[in-house]
């Protein structure tokens, strides 16, 4: 059957409104009434047929996705775990085919626009247009160029290497090794600067590609009916795209005072350590935060720890001791003095054994909530450690390969706290995939992308010091106000420090996509936003010869980032709701849902819904309220917030947003 095109359907809707407005008109003669009835019956039959046709179309899209998607994910997997020209060719081609198919489906779906559809079909069609953050231009050549550039950028990041001459020898390091320099409190200022600027140099050659990427992706967005790629990204939240932008502003306004307080305190400690090099015009030097992007500051813990006499909170020492013990065990079992080759081999085995043990610990937590053990294929196919023989994209990720049981993570796990927590994060994605695998592919997504990012982190909030002590990763804790402030500070270095970073990446990209940030000011705009939101400054002049945004994975990897900002608000809302379900009494920060079946059942129900309904409904089912709401994170950090306000008294907190002289400093309350 041939369906009527969309404009006619819209005209029909208008006609129905008109007839409703004519209620007071004199009764029409009998004959026209009969004609009207016949027309109504015909219209109903037509509507029913159209509805059925739309349902069948969505079913066909879902079937095609199930059939074709595994080939694309397999190609992507190879491209990220065997970086090189061949895997790049295969991945770019597979993505090109997938996006072209998606584009055809979107075109086809237009004939259903304006029709009255079943809610599920209407939602599926809406999600179809939002299915990719890299919209495909209709022009086949442009599409092919887009997927080639995207793959090249992704691989360039993964293979990124910084080389320099040391004592006449060429020394080359990749991201992991450079991050270790920044994380080590014993590294000096010059070493920090070298590692930071070395990694940022890797992004310089990406700049031209990225600029072209933006043009092509925007072309795709316009072909889909969006103003630009940023507008497409902002449309994925079951609300008006402009309203979404305002929503993120509102949330930032709620948490900014807490962040500013933390920035001020950390800056003071940096100045104590580095003297006048510890701040740049009230801002924190980007290379001194213990993190390559100044996004989470957990590695500054030894520097900013409020009370030094309390038991230690970092779990890295225990993980490293476990690794060392394992290595000794294997060396002893060898029964002869190890050769250098033995050592390399045993270290590899031990790294893998540690990575697996850490992943099993994370799995334990989910299983304690009533979620299933991970399938055997997860253990067989995941990449847990960095292979020695080739370049890979080490940035952690979680994959559903086939909308069914083939789920994997790809990481380069080291025995550190940071990586341990990242495993919990990644398994959050995996358990989401597993929980919604019965949904049709178009609904196999987070309620929104912030939900997906928040699942594992919600679990991490339960890793209280008491819990970590119970699994032997830190010593038993004392109950005291000092211990509480220490624990809160440690958590805040990750969760609070992250908030402005989570926001600014897409503030930059939204501007790049809508043209308000021109290609000639990519870097200036980047550092303007870093100053404005984070109060972070570059350690050296960064002109337009650099491309510092490109040094962050999600920019060359084209992963939208506002999701992480949302996640850092949502995870506290989820945690509060699950703690209530678990019957937790007392302050929020003391709650641990480990082993709680009630909390687990609520969690699982939320996950199973996937994207089948608007996120507002999903969050209402969990928390009783429909809004994103920063009151949970503010509640959680109330003790620290009070403490920071006290500590900052008498300090000139705040920072001038530009690069100019200190001006708008305000005294802390
Ligand atoms: O990219 C990630 C995860 C994978 S979705 C490791 N995260 C963001 C980042 O590393 O920049 C988690 C926190 C923020
Ligand atoms: Zn994630």
From TrEMBL:
It comes from the Bacteria. InterPro entries: Peptidase_M2. Gene3D superfamilies: 1.10.1370.30. SUPFAM superfamilies: Metalloproteases ('zincins'), catalytic domain. Keywords: Disulfide bond, Glycoprotein, Signal. Residues 1-20 form the signal peptide. This is M2 family metallopeptidase. It comes from Coralloluteibacterium thermophilum.
């Amino acid at each position: 059957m041939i369906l009527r095109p969309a404009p006619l359907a819209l005209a029909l809707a208008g006609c129905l409104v008109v007839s409703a407005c004519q209620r007071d008109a004199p009764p029409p003669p009998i004959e026209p009434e009969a004609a009207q009835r016949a027309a109504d019956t015909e219209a109903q039959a037509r509507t029913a047929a159209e509805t059925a046709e739309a349902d069948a179309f969505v079913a066909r899209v879902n079937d095609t996705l199930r059939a074709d998607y595994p080939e694309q994910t397999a190609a992507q997997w190879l491209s990220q775990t065997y970086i090189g020209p061949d895997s790049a060719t295969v991945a770019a081609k597979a993505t090109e085919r997938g996006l072209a198919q998606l584009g055809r489906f979107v075109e086809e779906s237009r004939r259903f626009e304006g029709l009255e559809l079943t809610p599920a079909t209407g939602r599926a069609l809406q999600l179809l247009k939002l299915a990719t953050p890299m919209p495909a231009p209709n022009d086949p050549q442009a599409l092919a160029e887009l997927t080639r550039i995207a793959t090249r950028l992704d691989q360039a990041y993964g293979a990124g290497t910084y080389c320099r001459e040391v004592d006449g020898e060429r020394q080359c390091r990749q991201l992991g090794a450079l991050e270790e320099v920044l994380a080590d409190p014993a590294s000096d200022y010059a070493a920090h600067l070298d590692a930071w600027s070395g990694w940022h140099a890797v992004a310089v050659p990406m700049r031209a590609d990225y600029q072209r990427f933006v043009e092509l992706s925007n072309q795709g967005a316009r072909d889909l009916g969006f103003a630009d790629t940023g507008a497409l990204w902002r449309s994925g939240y079951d609300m008006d795209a402009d309203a979404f932008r305002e929503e993120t502003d509102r949330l930032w306004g709620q948490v900014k005072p807490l962040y500013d307080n933390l920035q001020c305190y950390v800056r003071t400690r940096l100045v104590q350590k580095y003297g006048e090099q510890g701040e740049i015009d009230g801002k924190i030097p980007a290379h001194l935060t213990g993190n390559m992007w100044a996004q989470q500051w957990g590695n500054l813990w030894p520097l900013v720890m409020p009370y030094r006499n309390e038991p230690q909170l970092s779990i890295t020492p225990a993980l490293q001791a476990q690794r060392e013990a394992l290595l000794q065990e294997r060396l002893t079992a060898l029964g002869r003095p190890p050769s250098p080759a033995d050592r390399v081999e045993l270290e590899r085995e031990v790294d893998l054994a540690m990575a697996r043990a850490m992943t099993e610990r994370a799995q334990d937590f989910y299983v304690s909530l009533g979620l299933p053990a991970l399938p055997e294929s997860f253990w067989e196919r995941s990449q847990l450690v960095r292979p020695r023989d080739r370049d890979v994209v080490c940035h952690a990720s979680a994959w559903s390969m086939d909308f069914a049981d083939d789920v994997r993570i790809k990481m380069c796990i080291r025995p550190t706290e940071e990586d341990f927590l990242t495993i919990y994060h990644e398994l959050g994605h995996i358990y989401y995939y597993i929980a919604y695998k019965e949904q049709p592919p178009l609904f196999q997504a987070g309620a929104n992308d912030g939900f997906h990012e928040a699942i594992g982190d919600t679990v991490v909030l339960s890793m209280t010091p008491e819990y970590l002590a119970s699994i032997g990763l830190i010593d038993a804790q004392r109950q005291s106000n000092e211990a509480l402030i220490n624990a809160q500070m440690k958590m805040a270095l990750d969760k609070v420090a992250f908030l402005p970073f989570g926001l600014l990446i897409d503030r930059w990209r939204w501007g790049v996509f809508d043209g308000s940030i021109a290609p000639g000011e990519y870097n200036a705009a980047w550092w303007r936003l870093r100053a404005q939101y984070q109060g972070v400054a570059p350690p050296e002049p960064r002109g337009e010869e650099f491309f510092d945004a490109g040094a962050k994975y999600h920019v060359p990897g084209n992963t939208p980032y506002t999701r992480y900002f949302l996640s850092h608000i949502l995870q506290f809302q989820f945690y509060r709701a699950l703690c209530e379900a678990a019957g937790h009494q007392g302050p929020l920060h003391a709650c641990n849902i480990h082993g709680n079946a009630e909390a687990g059942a609520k969690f699982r129900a939320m996950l199973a819904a996937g994207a089948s309904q608007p996120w507002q409904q999903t969050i209402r089912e969990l928390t009783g309220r429909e809004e994103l709401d920063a009151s949970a994170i503010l509640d959680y950090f109330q003790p620290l917030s009070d403490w920071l306000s006290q500590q900052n008294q008498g300090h000139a907190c705040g920072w001038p947003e530009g690069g100019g002289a200190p001006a708008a400093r305000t005294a802390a309350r």
